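Issue 218. Parser rejects a valid record. Input:
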Amino acid sequence: MSIQLTTNEVRVLGCLMEKSVITPDQYPLTLNALTNACNQKSSREPVMSLEPGTVKATIRSLQDKHLVRVEENFRTQVEKYTQRLCNTPFSDYQFDPPQFAIVCVLLLRGPRTPGELRANSGRLHTFSDNNAVLAALEELAQREGGPVVAELPVQPGRRDAQWIQLFSGAVPAIARPAAATRVQTREAPPPTAESAARVTELEARIEKLEAEITRLRGLLENDT
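Output the parser choked on:
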């Protein structure tokens, strides 16, 4: 894979992908909105505390890699940003909704099992079961242009293998490619509809609170 992203670049692209789906009315994102998205305490691992200047420098780096597009309103002098990693006319990566959700979650949360990916996909995509997640993962691992995810060996004390995204560099030595054929997965019991709905509800409430804090902070800055 020719793309090799830094930790900050992974976070910025993941946030732009996420917000394009769950808050399309606020997309493209301003620098302030993107910084807040990067520093969310929910749906992020690790939790980060990036300064606006750091986010802007990361945007410029991604712009040089043709992975972010900058839109400027010449009347207000406000820049807004969109991702160009995937699903654009000139991108090498065209993901369907299940694949898009998986890549986005892996960028934002790090290695996940199929069950965790299903529970964490929230408003990005609804998977019917863990096998649907696994099917999308294997498509991404076996894509003709090269894999974008890899399966890790099962860690001691765990039943299920985690998967990682490969935009941060080469396949780790400990990772193994997905099997061409696979028997029924020995996945942990899937989350109940009630628990998955509660996770989605809590994440939505946290995002609304963070958006309100951002709005109030903007009002205070305007008053000063």
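Fixed in the parser; the record now loads. Residues 179-188 have pLDDT under 50 and may be disordered.
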